[in-house]
User: Fold START domain-containing protein from Acinetobacter celticus.
Amino acid sequence: MKKVMFMACAVVLSTAACAKPLENAKLSINKNNIKVWTYQDNQNPVFMYKAETTLNVPIEQAVALILNIDHAVSWVPYLSQVKMLSRDDKKGEFQLYMVLDFPFPLKDRDLVVQGKMTKDAQGIITIQNKAIKKNYLQNSQNVRLTHYEGDWTFQKLGPQKVKVSTSGFANPEGSIPLSVSNMFVQQQPYQMLQKMKTELAKATVVSSLPESLK
Assistant:
């Protein structure tokens, strides 16, 4: 079975900075029950983001979609390839290799993600991810990203309702216009949560979760 922990889908068009609370956050998008906030570090002109929505599905079903890397390319924006490198279901730890499709003439980006899944005493499930320096499949055709962090958070609101939040940042490397970066940082998480809703509407079976989340 190839189902495994999935990354906090990378928005790779923002500039790396230390993860901070939402300071001076701006509500950039608020429609279709999806909210996207963008904010900036004092020394960083490019946006970071947080997005959230509520879904009328069991929490297990929402988490299972994120954990299914076989299906990820069909709904995660800009993701062209993802491969599981290692996993430990008991510890909730994993490594993934990802390729992100950038528009011509930019080179595609790739990265290796180290992830950790946890469930707290209140039942909130969190998937935390960061890029690590690893030479797996590194070649001149792609630009390797080494500064990325992101997360997913799932909070059960009822038997058939869950609050889903995602946030992140990355250093895209290379030369990308600031206006283009900021546009994608606002739009990508909105598109991602919209597609997530569509995929969950198709689902009929709730998959079991890894041992670390039970």
About this structure: The helical segments are 59-67, 178-202. Strands lie at 26-31, 34-39, 48-55, 79-88, 93-100, 108-119, 125-132, 142-144, 148-158, 161-170.
